[in-house]
């Protein structure tokens, strides 16, 4: 680890709340709640089991969420996980962090959707004050469900929510199925960022051209929509051109992509080519627990793979914060 990477201020846009629990907290909450479905209560064994495996599909890798979500079904647990997320990120040198989660899956034991969101928002407010970090929450609908408009309604109702996302399996679950929800979010001035990456080749085009998204979750496969000829970019479709010309932020998550089999190494990841050629790239953890990764480790991996320096990371961090959804006045202070 380069010492300066640990110390330099960092920003993350794509970090799933229920994918970032401490292993110790997952085990402790399971014990307190008499949740008996964990495959192991040994920290190292459980950590290894949770890690995505390249030979599995995304849908199978998502099974680990059943356990993290399973212990986040009451207000105290959700609040605790939120507070700990901000503490861990702050301790790692992160000054700006957007957390995201799917609120409706936390209503299995009687909480209302608004109570779930309140628990996270309260954790963020208290965590910001206690840990000197700027943060906000994005609410996720799930591609495989038909209730994305309900999630948008929550975004509209709860003024502390900063954006709307669609997560979950891409194969067989097009963004077009949620076009009305995205339109409703747009009409109500809700920021939109949608997952789109390696599972469906046309996924990024669907997101960019049909959702009015301001950012793309992941988005590394946009590399297949461009050609570099004599250091000039040729666009294969309107979506790639739109992303480039409008500086749509790509929420790249290299470690997560590698673990799910999209790339063999960080050096093979599209980050380097996209950054070198002027795309608005950001560096993200995706799921700190699932990937067993910190933001400093994520940044360091990119630094070493593509020979970046402090100025590169400061520039990327500034662009990341500029692309953020939290109140501009709070973000402006971090960019000064």
List the topology elements:
Elements: H1 3-7, E1 10-16, H2 23-32, H3 43-50, H4 58-61, H5 65-70, H6 75-91, E2 94-101, H7 113-131, E3 134-142, H8 148-157, E4 161-167, H9 179-187, E5 193-196, H10 203-210, E6 215-218, E7 226-229, E8 232-235, H11 238-245, E9 249-252, H12 254-259, H13 271-276, E10 281-283, H14 295-306, H15 310-322, H16 328-335
Note down, in words, how this protein is organized:
With 336 residues, the chain is of the alpha/beta class. It has one domain: TIM Barrel. Helix content is 44%, strand content 16%. The protein is built from 16 helices and ten strands. Strands 1-2-3-4 form a four-stranded parallel β-sheet, with helices on both faces. The protein has a four-stranded parallel β-sheet with strand order 5-6-9-10. The mean pLDDT is 94.
Strand content: 15-25%
Order of helices and strands: HEHHHHHEHEHEHEHEEEHEHHEHHH
| Total E-strand runs | 10
Tally of helical segments? 16
Distance between the termini: 27 Å
Question: Any idea what the shape is?
Answer: globular
CATH topology: TIM Barrel
Strands ordered across the widest β-sheet: 1-2-3-4
Give the radius of gyration.
19 Å
- What percent of residues adopt helix (DSSP H or I)? 40-55%
Class per helix and strand makeup:
alpha/beta
- The CATH architecture can be named as Alpha-Beta Barrel
How many structurally independent domains?
A: 1
Which CATH first-tier class would you pick?
A: Alpha Beta
* Name of the CATH homologous superfamily: Metal-dependent hydrolases
Low-confidence stretches: none
Mean pLDDT: 94
Largest sheet: 4 strands, parallel
